Structures are given as C-alpha cells and as structure tokens.
Amino acid sequence: MLKRKIAILIVTILAAAGSARAVEPPYILVDLDSGAVLAERQSGELWYPASLTKLMTVYLVFEALAEGRLELNSPVVISENATAAQPSRMGFPSGTIITVENALKILIVKSANDVAVAVAEMMGASESGFVADMNQTAIDLGMTGTRFINPHGLPGGGQYSNARDMALLARTIWTRFPQFRDLFAIPEIRFGSTIMPAGNSLLEFYPGSNGMKTGYICAAGFNVAATVTRGQRSFLAVVLGAETPTHRATTTAFLFDAGFETSANIAGPLLSAYRPVSGVTAPVNLRSTMCPPDAGGNEDGPDQRDLLIAAFGEPAPLPPPVAVFTGGADPTARLLVFIPHPRQRPTDILGVPATPATAGIPLPRPRPRTF
User: Fold this and answer.
1) SS3 for 70?
2) Is-above-0.70 flag for pTM?
3) For 113, which of 7, 152, 255, 267 could close a Cys bridge (C-beta 3.0–4.6 Å)?
4) Which of 43, 74, 88, 111 is catalytic?
5) Overall number of domains in the chain
6) What is the DSSP code (8-state) at residue 286?
7) Does 169 score more than 60 pLDDT?
C-alpha cells in the first residue's frame, strides 16, 4: 500500500511537471451512506462544471423514469439542432432515433453533446425549456452555487457550479436512484465496430470504483465525480480542475484512500447543510494554462495510460463493451415528460450567497499534492 501511494505521488508530480498554475484544484470527499463531509478544499469555489453538467441531465431522465412519465424504450430523436452541437458527439444524422436507455449509456460513457441536446428537447419540448427545469431542480436540491445554460456543459457565460453542489447532485442520484447505478459503472460502450471508453480511469485502476462521470473543457481542466464501494463503506469524491487525466485519477485515489483510513464513526458536517462560499464572483477560468495558444501539440508529453499504470499497477480486466445502437424505440411508449409536476422550493434561492461552513475538515492523511 505504501509503495503504491509513493508511486501515485511521484507520477502525479511528473504528470504536472512544468506547470505554471497557481490554482489548487477544489475537492470534496463525502461518506455516501451518512452524507458526512470528510474532507474538502475550496469546495464552494465557482467552477465550470464541463460534462459533470450531464449528471443533472440524466437526473431529470431518471426522475421521469421513476415517476412513470418515461420508459427506457421511449424514443429520442436527433434533431437538426442536436447535430450542430460541438464535440464530443456521436455524429448521428438528423432524424436518427435511439431509445432512452441507449441515450443514457451514451451520455454517461461517451458524454456526447448531440445526444444531450436531443434528450433535452425530448424532455423539455425545447433545449431552453429543459435548461429551465435543470435550474429549478438545482434550486430544489439546494445547489446554491450552480447555474446551467445548456444540458451538456460546453462553456458559456452564466454557467457555473462548485465541488459541493456537484457532490450533492451525485449523492442524490446515488441514494434516490439505486436502480440506475450500474449505468455509471460501464467502462466502455460499442457502436458498431467503434469502442468508446469512459473517461473515469478509476473503473480500471482503483478496486471498488463504481462510477460516476468525468468532464473536461479548457476553461475547467479535468473534472470528476467518482464513487467507490468496498465492503460496507462507500465514498464519493468530486475533484475539479485537475491538470491531466492522471492528476485527476491520482488525486481522487488519495481522497478514497483517506476515506477508507478513517473510522466509520468519524463525524463531519452533513453535505446537505454544508455551505462553503466562493472566493470569486465568476468561475475560475483555466484556459490560458490548460490550452495556451502557443502550446502546439502534446506529442512529446508523457503517455497518460503509462502514467496510470506506473501509479496504480496493471489495470483490472474489463468486461466486454456494452453495445449501443440506433432504432429499437417504441413510438407508443409513455412520453409524458412535458406534464408539469409540483416541486417543493427550499429556502435557499439560486444566486444568494451561502453561509460559510463552521470549520474545514482536514484530510486524515497527507493531502493530495497541489499545483
């Protein structure tokens, strides 16, 4: 164990060598069962969520499925508007029909933006209507530092979140929809002869890892909301703004290690009541350091998979990729998602500054290296 931790630390340093960044990646570690916050750093800092945005997109689909307003074989139609979404995308032509079930697998594993737009249009009658529902749901859940402008996470003015809010959303999915947990544990999907891996390398490299979602844009860096279960204990970690996929994985692994090394009876503030504040009034923008205009290609940089193997050892064998396909939808399946349904509004309103936590919770072991 100690040898592996040293390897992780060395590889993390190598993976970020030469960086001029001064921003420390925010993170939060939560006990999934109790909801206790076990460790955090700047978890209220405003950040671009990137494709962690899709956690809210799939949350609303899960909600409709659970309430019987939608079925797994209900149709999702790829519109002309959806085909215009920027990558990552599946590239389906306009008029293509897929099932809700396949759409979910594609959203979670491939993180396809065109499918996210198509799902939004199916769920909300329009993309903007769905985004309004996303923001109302964020209010309902108590995500006081979050605002969405699209269903996929591509950057734009007015879109932001933070590590605490993404942890709250991820834990709500975990606790409210256990029937859909397996979707987040899919390491690869296959469409025809094309295999598309999930961005969450911990599914291969960290024993017990079982989801959830990664995201990346230049402005945000490498984000992840990840879960792990060993025995009777389950943890959730959110890491924002890592410099590389390896840095993201090793930082998350440090947090998971910290969780398993704590007593099961350790006390911490409940995530639902935790209110960290942001030190900035707009999302931190890492574009100038993550994607500098004069950087050129990265052909001479370290291979991320080699770094992951150096840090974690050889990965576990993967199950066969899960096949996804077009067609197969039942046009008569329930599609009642446009019917308004009442929501209880919390006292916290989106945009109102949250109150600070009473105390930060330090890691019970050395913190992940900061850069």
Assistant:
1) strand
2) yes
3) 152
4) 111
5) 1
6) -
7) yes
